[in-house]
Structure prediction request, 600 residues.
Amino acid sequence: MTAMRSVRPSWILAAILVLVLATPAWAQQPASDAHIQELIHRAAEQVSNGQTNQPAQTSSTQTPLTLEDARPMVHMSLDEAVKLALDRNLDIAVQRLNPQLNDIQLSSLTSVYRPAITSQLGTASQTTPANTTLSGSNSAGQPVDLGQSTYNAGVAQSLPWGGGGFNVSLNNNRRTTSNLTTFYNPTFNTNWSGQYTQPLLRGFKIDSTRQQIQVTRLNRDISDIQLRASITNTLSNVRNAYWDYVFAVQSVEVARQSLDLANNLVRDNQTRVQVGTMAPIDVVQAQSEAATRRQALVAAESTRRTSELGLKRLIVNGTQDPNWNALIDPTDQPDFRPEAVDLEAAVRRALSERTDLEIVKKNVQANDVTLRLLRNQTLPQADFVAQYGLTGIGGTQLLKTGSGLPGSPAVITGTVPGGYADALSSLWNGGFPQWSFTLNFSFPLGLSAQEAAVARARVQLNQVQEQIKQAELQVATDVTSAAINVQNTAEAVQAAQAARELADQKLQAEQSKFEVGMSTNYFVVQAQRDLADARNSELGAIRNYRKALVELERNQQTTLQSLNITILNSLGSGASVGSGAAATAATAAGALGGGGTTGR
Prediction:
């Protein structure tokens, strides 16, 4: 404005004379010297005072205060957006719980193979009348007392291999009695026994428990694969949403620049109307174009808000997140660097990395496990059972005279002290062993149901194996399509850049011609509109190219590698309960620490 005030009157006069002389014939009306001097005087005053006659509604600077002006601004790079998504995305948080659920189920199934300890403590008392000479009393009708205390312990366990199981027990009791025929009072009886059962046919290689464990482990692997797929898809969506938001912000800037050009044209036309070198209808046309550009700016602002909301949805963990109410300022700008695509290597990489293909292969393994179980169930039941035991006895030994039979009453003359230790000593000496070997065999007549189940499982397995071929073809198709899209979008960027350069040159030429009267207001407006469209097309083409590269990485399942992100299972392959909560330790060394991301 200061420069405008310092314009000399002679320059103003020269400019007005040029406009008058350059005006088309229809605008060059005869004017008296007095009228020309009056116009020069009024124009000089207007320029020196910095006044314009532009209506307020056409000014791009008179934008009403919006909610964005009151929000805190957060400067965010693409790396920072990816890091926030890893830490706060709710879809990833939900998916992280699935491995933990499978761990709990696996722990429940494997608990069958944990040893179980049993014990029994008890006491009992019984009093019966003597009714025979063998009742242990010297006279009929006398009470015979019997008291017993029991303390048993044992351990049993099913084995995870071979389908076998064993149990070991140590049974003890202490008896006190008034029976005169006993040799010990109190008497300590102890018995140790062990038994092992081994299936030989059905249940030897696999049984229902081991089948469920193997399938659950495969499901655990599938949940890890699904977690990796969820992270890959989420990060790809974040990158796409970031570039969409950058494009929306740039589109707003292009719309503002276009509105400024339209407003400048309105001001220039108003000046020409005032000096009599242009018809008033041209001002109306320019004002109409400015109003159209303002509508385009409003639409661009609306798209920017929608794109910002889409990005926030992926990087916040709720409405209480500080970034939810902030105004995001994207600091990375997409650039265009054509990248060569090795299609054969890309397809080969996708066939080895694609999560959907891995899941299908895991399903094949699960169906194979089920088929092996059903085949095993058609075999006869043949179980080998081995038993071995030892018995011991001890206590206070009674020294007696007489047998306790009629005519020879039993009389206790003395005792030999003893106790539980004597019973254990008798047990470990192995003086009273017992053992047995048994083979149990059974075979049902008619196996139509089991054979039908096997046939059905075999068909299902073949079906899933065909799905692998189908999935491989789909993977190759997806990667090929993504590679073609990369090439197409790269060519589109080059064409859009050339179109934008030509549109810029065209506008400059039209403005130069308009200033010397060789063009009309219509062609200038059209050139401005073409330049705005060309700029938007170029920005959109670059955005589409960046997104095409993201989709190519997604289809190859190389997004995590390109971002230097590693998913760690903190408990390793032997993880059980709780590994799901810590299964995903995503780090992004380098990629998330800074540096340019415009090439991603």
Remarks:
- Confidence is low (pLDDT under 50) at residues 1-31, 46-65, 570-600.
- The radius of gyration is 47 Å.
